[in-house]
Amino acid sequence: MTPNPSAPALDFDSLLSKRAKTMNASAIREILKVTQQPDVISFAGGLPAPELFPLDGVRQAAGAALDKYGPAALQYSTTEGHPPLREWIAARDDIPASNVQIVTGSQQGLDLLGKVLLDEGDLVLVEAPTYLGALQSFQPYLPRYEQLPTDEGGIDVDALEALLTRLEQEGKQAKVLYAIPNFQNPTGRTLNLERRRKLVELTARHGVLLIEDDPYGELRFSGEALPSLYRLGLELHGGVEKNHVIYCSSFSKTLVPGLRDAWVQAATPIIRKLIQAKQGADLHTPTLNQMIITELLPILPAQIEKVKKAYGERAAHMMQRMDDLFPRGALRTTPQGGMFLWVTLPGGIDTTAMLERAVSRQVAYVPGSPFFALGGGQNTMRLSYSSATPEQIDRGIAALAETIREGLD
C-alpha cells in the first residue's frame, strides 16, 4: 500500500480506556533506569542478591523436571497450577490444594485480586505508607482509599477500630484491607502479635476482606516468628471456607525472582474467580518454571538460611553506618527481616527533589511519597540493603549523609 501522508492520524490518547488513564509508571522502575549506570550505588530496587541464587540447583532442577515429565514440561498446563507444588504449599497450612492458586509473580496475584474483588468506588484500606506496587495493581479498578496510621508495631488497630465504627455508623462499608505484616515494604516494620489478633478479629466482625501480602515472611533474621494473619483467620473461623483472610506469597525472595512463581490462598469462591481471571490473563503460569520450583523445594530450607544470614549482616552494617554518619534528626526503622528500612528526615527536606543531588554523588534510593495512597511522606525514603556489599554500603551511606546535610544547610 502506498503511504498517504495526508491520511488522518488517530488521537490514540482519546481512545484509551478510563482505567488505562489512571495508570502510572512505577516510581521504582523509573528510578532503576538511572541506577543501571555502573558507577551508581543503588539502595533503590528491592532486588534479591543475585550472588545468592542457587544456580547449580536451578540447573539440576531444570534437568530433573525435563527428565521426569518429558514433553509435558513444555506443554500447556492447567490454570490452577502444577499439582505437586500446590499440594506442598497447601500442606503448610493444612488446607486443601484446591484452595491454592499459582500465579505468575505476586504482582499478578494482586492484579487478579483487584480484578475479581474491586468495583469502581469500593473502599480499600491501606497502611500509610504501603507497597506502591499494590496501589499500582488496584488503581485501574478505580477504588477509593483510606490510609491507616502506622508506628513501630505496625498498623494502629485502635485507629482502625474507630474508622470501621464510624463507617458503620454512616452506613458505609470498607471492601478490602491490604496489609504486609512481616517486614513491611517499604518500612521494614513487623505487625506485633497482639495487633495481628485484633486486626483479624476487627476485619471479620465488620465484614472486611483482609489481603495478607507476605513475600518476606521467611526472611526473619532477628526476633521470634509470628503466626500469619491467614493462620489466625483459620483459627478464628475454624476452617478455610469461612476464612476472610486471603494470603499471598512468592518464591521470588527465597529462591529466584526470574521464574515468577507465587501463589494465593483463599476460600473457594475467590479461588474460582481467580482461575477465571487468570485464564483471561495468561492461561497459566509457565509449566517448566513451576516444575523447576517444585524440584528445588528440598533445598529451600538451606537457601532461606543462607539468604537470612546475608541480609541480616547487610542490614546491621547499613544501620550502623547510618547511626555513625546521618545527621541528628534523621530517624530510621529497625527491621527484623526482609529487605528494607525506612528513613524519616527533618520536615523541610523533600526526598524527591533531593534524589537528583544524591545520584550526582552516585547513590540512589526511593523517595517515600509514592508509597502513600493519599499523599504525604515528602521527607521519607526507602533503602534496600539486600543486594549491596559492605563496601557499597560504606560509600553509599556516606554519600547519602553528605546529601542530607546539604539539604539541611
TrEMBL record:
Keywords: Aminotransferase, Pyridoxal phosphate, Transferase. CDD domains: AAT_like. It comes from the Bacteria. The keyword Acetylation does not apply. Pfam families: Aminotran_1_2 (PF00155). Residues 62-400 form the Aminotransferase class I/classII large domain. Gene3D superfamilies: Aspartate Aminotransferase, domain 1, Type I PLP-dependent aspartate aminotransferase-like (Major domain). Its cofactor is pyridoxal 5'-phosphate. One of its GO terms (molecular function) is transaminase activity. This is PLP-dependent aminotransferase family protein. It comes from Deinococcus antarcticus. The lineage of its organism: Bacteria, Thermotogati, Deinococcota, Deinococci, Deinococcales.
